[in-house]
Write a structure and sequence with these properties.
The structure holds 2 protein chains of 2 kinds. By secondary structure, chain A is mostly helical. Helix content of chain A is about 85%, strand content about 0%. Chain A contains 10 helices and no strands. Chain A has helices spanning about 1-25, 35-45, 50-80, 85-100, 100-110, 115-140, 145-150, 155-195, 200-210, 215-240. In chain A, α5 (about 100-110) packs across α8. Chain B contains 5 helices and 8 strands, in the order βββαββαααβαββ. In chain B, a hairpin with a 4-residue loop joins β1 and β2. The chains are: A mainly alpha, B alpha/beta.
Chain lengths: ~240, ~190
């Protein structure tokens, strides 16, 4: 109850501060009023042409997310089983981790279509995160259970399924949830820079060109809201399924 | 079967834990080893299983194949996320493993808990699963590290009896550890203090 009250208070404080600053600036181009932004949100949500655009972005997020989760889990297991594979890929993964997203997007623009770049970049940016979550989870200390497994002749697969994966559960769930959030951010950022035919990022970019600040903020709030809700649903489902 | 001149050294403390320990095991008989906490009982069993921690180094002779050893650990080491029966059967390729497991779990008073997740059991129940798993494995040497430490009187007697019957029936070698000599009285055929 206290937590909900604190969150509500925080939201109200932000809205109050926003209103105060908007009054002070008094320019919808620089900072529109909260009221007009919320009006724009409802207009966007009611607009039939908005949903195909939003669904296209959502589709890219889901595809990149699925590729990352599947390949990240496989790679994490391989890293755990074969130290050579881990050492071999540790350098490229460190490079990817410290490279700005924009740099990847600009380079990829030469090679791929803008639509596939969004997915590719999201996979590149999220893959190191999920791999390290899976690997660190699997590396949790399970020495005593492994000794037991040795005496009772467990196969490698049985050890993975019954000893290592249960120990890695929390780490894997946290990794999956965090890359879902990152996927949203990266896909939209890539759309803004690569301007595919359809996409929320393209919509944001066009609004920016036409100086429609209200539209940019409204669209951003919709994206944040959806990402937040879907992340919560995903977290709930994963905790149930992987219980 | 013999254990000859076993010396186990704790490398961290740079101190010998076990000094020149020897013992002879007989087929179908239980050898009891008792001693205070930290005297090295578990380390002897771990050495026999081939799972002695890297903090220790050991020298000595043992006439047994690690593959033919079964062990019930001091702490249950059950897989909490899977069922009680699966804990007993996992890794065991015996054709009759399911029947054997069901039979022994029923004797141990866990018949109705076989489909339950092992994580939901009490400490004593987990310990009985641990013992049941060890008994179900086909082995030449059985090791039981304080198998009745967390059992009430009635269950402790059931566990002792089941171990005794199994060792007699299979004519295997067996070592059981305990803190006190009286815990081994009427259970072990011979005892050694360390």
């Amino acid at each position: 109850m206290k937590k909900i009250a604190a969150v509500l208070l925080s939201i109200l404080s932000i809205l109050f501060l926003w209103q105060l600053l908007a009054c002070k600036v008094n320019s919808s181009l620089i900072l529109p009023y909260p009221e007009s932004v919320f009006k724009q949100i409802f207009l966007l949500l009611a607009d039939k042409s908005f949903w195909p655009i939003f669904i296209t972005t959502f589709g890219r997020v889901i595809i990149s997310f699925a590729i990352s989760v599947a390949s990240g889990i496989i790679a994490g297991v391989l890293f755990f089983l074969f130290p050579f594979v881990r050492d071999f890929f540790s350098f490229p993964l460190s490079v990817i981790r410290s490279t700005p997203v924009v740099a990847f997007i600009l380079i990829a623009l030469y090679w791929f279509s803008s639509s596939s770049i969004c997915i590719l970049i999201a996979v590149i940016m999220t893959l190191p995160v999920i791999i390290s979550s899976v690997y660190s989870g699997l590396s949790t200390d399970t020495e005593k259970l492994n000794q037991m497994a040795k005496i009772f002749d467990y196969s490698l697969l049985q050890r993975l399924i019954y000893i290592h994966f249960p120990a890695a559960r929390t780490s894997i769930i946290n990794g999956i949830i965090s890359i879902f959030g990152i996927s949203w951010k990266v896909v939209v950022a890539a759309e803004v820079l690569t301007l595919p035919k359809s996409g929320t990022g393209t919509l944001l970019q066009r609004a920016q060109v036409h100086l429609e600040t209200t539209q940019i903020i409204a669209c951003t709030i919709i994206l944040v809201g959806f990402s937040f809700c879907l992340e919560r649903i995903l977290s709930f489902v994963l905790k149930r399924v992987l219980k | 079967m013999i254990i000859k001149n076993l010396t186990i050294k704790n490398n961290t403390l740079n101190k010998n834990l076990i000094n020149d320990f020897s013992a002879t095991l007989e087929e179908g008989k239980i050898l009891g080893i008792y001693g205070v906490t930290g005297s090295g009982k578990s380390s002897i069993l771990n050495w026999l299983c081939g799972i002695l921690s890297s903090n220790f180094s050991a020298e000595g002779e043992k006439a047994c194949n690690e593959k033919e050893v079964s062990c019930a650990f001091q702490e249950p080491r059950v897989l909490e996320n899977i069922s009680v029966i699966k804990n007993v059967c996992l890794g065991n390729n015996k054709a009759s493993i399911k029947d054997d497991a069901a039979k022994i779990l029923t004797v141990f008073g866990l018949g109705d808990k076989m489909p339950c997740k092992a994580g939901n059991l009490s400490g004593g129940e987990k310990q009985r699963v641990n013992v049941a798993r060890a008994i179900c494995k086909n082995a030449k040497l059985y090791l039981f590290d304080e198998p009745v430490a967390s059992q009430d009187k009635k269950n402790a007697e059931i566990v002792r009896q089941e171990i005794k019957n199994h060792i007699k029936k299979t004519n295997a070698f067996c070592i059981v550890t305990a803190h006190e000599k009286n815990e081994l009285t009427g259970f072990a055929d011979s005892v050694i203090e360390i």
